[in-house]
Amino acid sequence: MTDRIRDFLRVRRDLGQDEGPVMVLDLDVVRDNYTAFARALPDTRVFYAVKANPAPEVLRLLAEMGSCFDTASVAEIEMALAAGASPDRISFGNTIKKERDVVRALKLGIRLFAIDCEVEADKIARAAQAAAVETAEIQVFCRILCDGAGADWPLSRKFGCVPEMAVDVLEHAHRQGLHAYGVSFHVGSQQANTEAWDGALASASAIFQDCATRGIGLSMVNLGGGFPTKYLKAVPGVESYGDAIFRALTKHFGNRIPETIIEPGRGMVGNAGLIEAEVVLVSKKSQAEDEVRWVYLDIGKFGGLAETMDESIRYAIRTEHDADRMSPCVIAGPTCDSVDVLYEKQHYPLPVSLSIGDKVLIEGAGAYTTTYAAVAFNGFPPLRQIVI
Ligand SMILES: Cc1ncc(COP(=O)(O)O)c(C=O)c1O
C-alpha cells in the first residue's frame, strides 16, 4: 500500500465515510509503471490494454505520457479518444468484432485491427467500403495461439489461430487490399516466466519468412500483455521481461528486428489499486475443534473479485490483526450465490482475532476488478473506484 492510499483511507475513516467496499487507485504508481515499461523496452510502443482499468484519470495520464491504447470495443475506443489519444494511437485489438463496429471504428479514424481468421479480414474489407476508407490504409495483424503455460490467468484457445494458418490469413487480408502488417500473441496474463515470449517469437519469425516467400513484407510483432503484478508471490521485475524479450527477438530475427508493440494491462495498473472491504460474518459449519472458519466479506466474485475464479488469482489480504496467530479460513463474498466463494480449495490464513466489522485490505487490485463488478447482483452496487 502506498503512503498516499494509507493517508486517504485514514482521512476517509476519520470522516466516517468508509461505507462499502472501495478501490483506491494511486496514479503515481501508474506513472512509475509506464516509465518502467518505456525503459525496459525502449524500442517498443506501449499500447495500454484499456480493459484492465478504463478509469478516465488513468487513460488521461497515460495519453499525456505518450502511451497508445489497445481497445476491445467501440466504447473503449471512445474512452481513449476522450482521454486525448489520437486515432493513430489506438488499436482495435479484439479478434471478435461486429462488422458495424468496425465501420464505426473506421469512421472514428482507427486503422489498426487484430484478426485471427479470413472471415474477419473480409469483414474489415467490407467495412472499409461502407466507411469509404481505402483498404490499403488499414493495417491488420494476425493473432496466433499461445498455450499460456506459466500464466496464472491463461487466455485459452479463444483467440488466435495456429501459426501455419496465420500465413494464409495474412495473405488473404493482403489479397483484400488490406495492409498485412504483422503478428500478435498473448503469452497469458500474470505470466511468471520471463522466457514465455521465446516460443511465440520463433513462430512469428517463421510467419514473417513464409509471408516473404509469398511476396508479403510483414513489419510488426505485437508482443501482447502478460506482464505480472505482485499478488502473494514475488514476480520478476519488468526489466527482466525486457531483457528476455530482447534476447528472444535477436535470436529469432537476427539483425532484422521488427517494429514491436506491447499491450500491458495488469502490469500497468495492478499494483496501483487497493480495495478496502469489511468483514460481514465469521462463522463455522460445525462445532468440531478443527472446523475451519468461514470469513464472509462485503466483496466477492460479483463485486469485482472475479479473477478468484478457480482460485487463479490469489490476492494479498491484510488486516489490522496480522501480528496475531493465523489460522486457515474459507473466504466468501456477501451474495446469495453459492459460487461466490473466493478461496476454499486452498484455505487462506487469516488472524484468529479477525471479527465482524473489521476492515480488510486487498492489495494488487487495480486491474480487472471495477469493470468485472456486477451492476446490482443481489442489490449490491458495483465496486466504486476513487483515483487519487
Ligand atoms: C489483446 C489483449 N492485449 C492485452 C491484454 C492485457 O493483458 P495483461 O493484463 O496480462 O497485460 C489482454 C488481456 O486480456 C488482451 O486480451
TrEMBL record:
Keywords: Lyase, Pyridoxal phosphate. Its EC number is 4.1.1.17. GO terms for biological process: putrescine biosynthetic process from arginine, via ornithine. InterPro entries: Ala_racemase/Decarboxylase_C, De-COase2_N, De-COase2_pyr-phos_BS, Orn/DAP/Arg_de-COase, Orn_de-COase, PLP-binding_barrel. The keyword Lyase applies. One of its GO terms (molecular function) is ornithine decarboxylase activity. The keyword rRNA-binding does not apply. SUPFAM superfamilies: Alanine racemase C-terminal domain-like, PLP-binding barrel. Gene3D superfamilies: Alanine racemase, Lyase, Ornithine Decarboxylase, Chain A, domain 1. Belongs to the Orn/Lys/Arg decarboxylase class-II family. This is ornithine decarboxylase. It comes from Methylobacterium hispanicum. The gene is ldc.
